[in-house]
Design brief:
The protein is an alpha/beta fold and 738 residues long. The chain has five domains: 10-101 and 189-282, Rossmann fold; 110-181, Arc Repressor Mutant, subunit A (Orthogonal Bundle), CATH 1.10.10; 298-374 and 552-643, 3-Layer(aba) Sandwich (Rossmann fold), CATH 3.40.50; 385-507, PCRA, domain 4 (Orthogonal Bundle); 692-737. Helices cover 43% and strands 16% of the residues. It has 28 helices and 23 strands. The strands form four sheets. Strands 9, 10, 11, 12, 13, 14, 15, 16, 19, 20, 21, 22 and 23 form a 13-stranded mixed β-sheet that branches. Strands 3-2-6-7-1-8 form a six-stranded parallel β-sheet, sandwiched between helices. β21 (713-720) and β22 form a beta hairpin. α15 (387-400) packs across α20 (458-477) and α17 (421-434) packs across α18 (438-446). The radius of gyration is 28 Å and the shape is globular. Bound molecules: adenosine-5'-triphosphate and magnesium ion.
Length: 738
């Protein structure tokens, strides 16, 4: 016990050893919230107050859950398998599988990831003969997910206008389709689990009795439905109400755009009758300069709950800020600095390259590759989302549940079996007539007796072959262990053969083999090693599975994905207006404040060194952007930063010089402007600059803040004094310099 509680400060100790009661820990980055939560679980078990079976803990990612389990296992010499620890989605999945019947689901229900969901929506819209241009599938997806996250079924949607009526109708059709095929999407996991507990008193009482402690990390990022689920599970009004221990930081709330709600903190305080919020004020992660920068930045936000954060660490090195002419130069700067860190003895795995948007990783990856620096990208092209893996999973899903139309459509003609659009249409007609799945239609037409009659026509032969294949796979799989099922499927389906002859198939073959490895490690770790459990794992862990065996590689990820993590050194690139803060944030209420919290998260990941950089021009999504440095750089005190500019070549190699921070010093090259060909009289010959004051007939005066070319047209973004930000086509806007 003593070792468990060693090295903690008095506030941390008090939080960890709190008696059976609900508590809210509100504290800044790096103050030990996650450590307190993990240690409390170990303490509760070790002191004999509860068994692992009595605890449910929610973390933000599966990776975090795994790390916590490892840490707790290291602290305790007992089996902690009974402990429910995972993400909201993971825990809801576990509950729904345990009670699938009560939840109205098939035992082998499958989970749709976001792209599967979109495909499903497209099919539903098509069956309703809806024009995708009028109702873009993504918009429908957004509507459905929002409704579910607000706890609403299609029939409960309040219809006040035509648009909502249409959307509600699509939602209903989609709901029916999912139920028929036995599939659930991500928000459905939560909603259904909530409804199950709400409806089924026996189950609710069972869980009230069972979970004596519920602990939640990153509470600031829970959404409304998650909070309602927690309340229901805790049994607020029952005698056996669980002690709910939540930790969070309002300054790190970065999922408001997905419905997360810091208001939950205030409500929690009220609902669970918290008399005193626990605050942790010592930061154990970052050197003082880094912490000072974070504190100064976040002070620009309003409506904060207010916290102090100090550190006993020394000042450390100043933040390095680099002004690069373009994104390649920015990458070159990063690589030089990484090499210097390496020479100091910093392990590559302790260095993170963070960015606001996934698209930024391409140039970085290219440069790292050329510099032969090993790296690992988190959340980029996700393992389980790769084409070959999705094909393989579709076969497995059909084996588990042949009524899964999504899966069937993906692979009925992959590898090619001569089944074309016409063959498929026939099946779809039969399915519609019979009111069943495509598989049922195929079986009806080509299975059993029909199969033996020996069709000779090509598409028919193809379908018959497919029916035979899936039927025999389903029969075989009953007796085989999971890795064996996958191995057989990969050969029998023809996937291996297909990629074997494909020109760039080597990578794909490697990934398919990696799937067998994933299954091997899954059956070692999981309690339930069935095929459906593995498929659920594949959907839930998308993005967190790591392939290959890079022991010591740089860590590349978005700022969102870096939440909760820490590194010796952090590089944050692309600090440009429009990129970070992201341009989309302008259309959101409080969008800028959310971007600033994201910046706060980014800064506070660093323990010893922090590097900030921006590029004056950058290729993104096929366009050259001309950038202004991010306003966030202005919000960090000059005294904490050391600026450098692009590396200058000198006789003895490379040297650098300090420059004074200069904003708005970009000139749009005339060569770029010339490309539009036709310039209005007025603009011809004018040298436009970022930062230039201009005047417009309608909008009045303002300043150019951004420039880009789109579809061959030059556009500038102007911040008008009266009318705010506007994008204008240079050719037509008739701007005049002032
Ligand atoms: P974030 O808000 O970023 O999630 P956090 O509040 O969860 O941060 P932790 O990750 O738990 O903070 O802790 C930050 C670092 O400080 C970790 O390396 C942790 O081990 C260390 N730490 C926490 N408390 C102490 C302590 N009392 N003594 C020494 N190190 C500590
Ligand atoms: Mg944490």
């Amino acid at each position: 016990m003593s070792s468990l509680l060693a090295d903690l400060n008095p506030q941390q100790l008090a939080a960890i050893t709190l008696p059976h009661q609900s508590a809210l820990v509100l504290a800044g980055a790096g103050s030990g919230k996650t450590r307190v939560l993990t240690t409390r679980i170990a303490y509760l078990i070790q002191s004999g107050q509860v068994s692992p079976y009595d605890i449910l803990a929610v973390t933000f990612t599966n990776k975090a859950a795994k790390e916590m389990l490892t840490r707790i296992s290291a602290m305790l010499p007992i089996n902690i398998r009974g402990l429910w620890m995972g993400t909201f989605h993971g825990l809801c999945n576990r509950m729904l599988r345990a009670h699938h019947q009560a939840a109205g689901l098939l035992p082998a229900f499958q989970i749709l990831d976001s792209s599967d969901q979109l495909a499903m929506i497209k099919r539903v819209l098509k069956s309703l003969t809806v024009d995708e241009k009028e109702f873009p599938p993504r918009q429908v997806q957004w509507f459905i997910n929002n409704a579910k996250e607000a706890g609403l079924r299609a029939k409960n949607i309040e219809v006040n206008d035509n648009m909502t009526r249409q959307m509600a109708a699509f939602y209903l059709a989609y709901e029916q389709r999912c139920n028929k095929e036995g599939v659930v999407d991500f928000p459905e996991l939560l909603l259904r689990s909530y409804e199950l507990l709400n409806r089924n008193e026996t189950l609710r009482i069972h869980y009230h009795d069972r979970f004596k402690h519920i602990l939640v990390d990153e509470f600031q990022d829970t959404n409304r439905l998650q909070y309602k689920w927690l309340k229901l599970l805790a049994g607020m009004d029952s005698e056996t109400c669980a002690a709910v221990f939540v930790v969070g930081d309002d300054d790190q709330s970065i999922y408001a755009f997905r419905g997360a709600n810091t208001g939950n903190m205030v409500e929690f305080e009220h609902d669970f009758k918290i008399s005193k919020i626990i605050k942790l004020e010592q930061n154990y992660r970052s050197q003082a300069t880094i912490l000072d920068a974070a504190n100064a930045l976040i002070q620009n936000n309003s409506g904060r709950l207010g916290k102090n954060l100090w550190t006993a660490e020394g000042k450390g090195a100043p933040l390095r800020v680099h002004n690069a002419p373009n994104d390649f130069d920015e990458a070159a700067f990063i690589i030089d600095e990484i090499k210097a860190l390496q020479a100091e003895g910093v392990a590559l795995s302790q260095i993170a390259l963070l960015y606001r948007s996934n698209a930024q990783s391409r140039v970085l990856e290219h440069s790292l590759f050329s510099a032969a620096l090993p790296y690992r990208v988190y959340g980029g092209m996700r393992f389980f989302e790769r084409q070959e893996i999705k094909h393989a999973l579709a076969y497995l899903r059909l084996i588990a549940n042949p009524d899964d139309d999504n899966a069937l459509l993906r692979i009925i003609n992959f590898p090619a079996r001569g089944i074309g659009a016409r063959g498929l249409e026939q099946l779809q007609t039969i399915a519609r007539e019979q009111g069943g799945s495509l598989w049922a239609a195929a079986l009806h037409k080509y299975g059993g007796e029909a199969m033996l009659s020996g069709e000779s026509e090509k598409p028919k032969k193809g379908v018959a072959e497919f029916v035979r294949l899936i039927t025999s796979m389903r029969q075989d799989c009953a007796a085989l262990p999971l890795p064996q099922i996958i191995k057989q499927m990969l050969t029998q389906s023809g996937l291996m053969g297909h990629y074997h002859i494909e020109r760039e198939g080597a990578d794909r073959l490697e990934n398919l083999n990696e799937l067998i490895n994933a299954a091997l490690s899954f059956i070692h770790e999981a309690e339930d090693d069935s095929l459906s459990a593995f498929l659920a794992h594949a959907s839930l862990e998308a993005g967190e599975h790591q392939t290959g065996s890079i022991q010591d590689g740089l860590q590349l990820m978005t700022v969102h994905a870096a939440k909760g993590l820490e590194f010796h050194s952090v590089f944050l690139s692309g600090l440009e207006e429009g990129l970070f803060p992201h341009e989309n944030s302008r259309n959101e209420v409080n969008g800028l404040e959310e971007e600033r919290r994201l910046m706060y998260v980014a800064i506070t990941r660093a323990r010893h060194r922090l590097y900030l950089s921006f590029a004056q021009t950058r290729m993104l999504h096929g366009q050259t952007r001309y950038n202004v440095p991010s306003r966030f750089l202005n919000e960090i005190p000059e005294s904490l930063m050391r600026w450098s500019q692009s590396v200058q070549k000198t006789k003895d190699g490379y040297s650098e010089f300090n420059i004074k921070k200069r904003l708005f010093d970009l000139t749009i090259p005339n060569s770029e402007l010339g490309k539009t060909g036709v310039m209005s009289q007025q603009t011809q010959g004018v040298q436009w600059r970022i930062g230039q004051a201009v005047s417009h007939n309608k909008f009045g005066t303002g300043k150019i803040v951004n420039y880009e070319r789109q579809d061959g047209n030059a556009r500038v973004q102007v911040n008008f004094d009266r009318s705010g930000m506007k994008w204008l086509l240079l050719e037509y806007a008739k701007l005049t310099p002032v």
